[in-house]
């Protein structure tokens, strides 16, 4: 029996809660039905991508390469900045149904490379362009194209030409069910030196705004 088999048995018997923490953070929660409070059920219009960074979600958070507890009380994910984008890269960008010429579509490149059944080890790869991310151009070009035309993808913009992007690898390894080690590796694939600001982010999902009287959680350094 392998160590992972032992963890699975412990999880099934509920003697050790190995699955309490896992990749339960969506990469895109904005514009979804669960966060729609519009009077007419227009989820995409109620919370577009441009509003997502300044709104408090109720039912679920989003982030890049994120993990959280099973109730999503506390979350961890990456924020990135290449020095050119107008906003931090905190969540995946995509087109809403009415904008994409083939409907809703994510315009990013990311890969789930490894994950054990108990999430004792997880590995993720995100490819972040070094030039300014073409948010408006992707929207405009896909809106212009009809249904008979192919989708206009991020790679079609030329932003990855000459390999001018960062490979961002994120690995999680559990020393115990509550002790998680995080390793982040960034590789510049381009031909020249480039700067990337990396902001590992830990935060609480906002539960107190929706239920007055609930205490607000706080973070503190463990000594």
The amount of beta strand, in percent, is 25-35%
Mass-distribution shape: globular
Instruction: Work out the number of β strands.
Output: 10
User: CA-to-CA gap between the ends?
Assistant: 36 Å
Largest beta sheet, briefly? 4 strands, antiparallel
| Number of H/I helices | 4
Low-confidence parts lasting 5 or more residues at pLDDT below 50? none
Largest sheet strand order: 1-2-3-10
Q: Structural class given helices, strands, pairing? A: alpha+beta
Overall helicity:
10-25%
Question: How would you explain this protein's 3D organization?
Answer:
With 223 residues, this protein is an alpha+beta fold. The chain has 4 helices and 10 strands. The protein has helices at 3-13, 43-46, 49-52, 135-144, and strands spanning 21-22, 64-69, 74-81, 94-95, 105-106, 110-115, 121-129, 165-174, 180-188, 197-204. Strands 1-2-3-10 form a 4-stranded antiparallel beta sheet, with no helix packed on it. A 4-stranded antiparallel beta sheet has the order 6-7-8-9, with no helix packed on it. A two-stranded antiparallel sheet has the order 4-5. Strand 2 (64-69) and strand 3 (74-81) form a beta hairpin. The longest helix is centred in the first third of the chain and has 11 residues, at 3-13. It is globular. The mean pLDDT is 93.
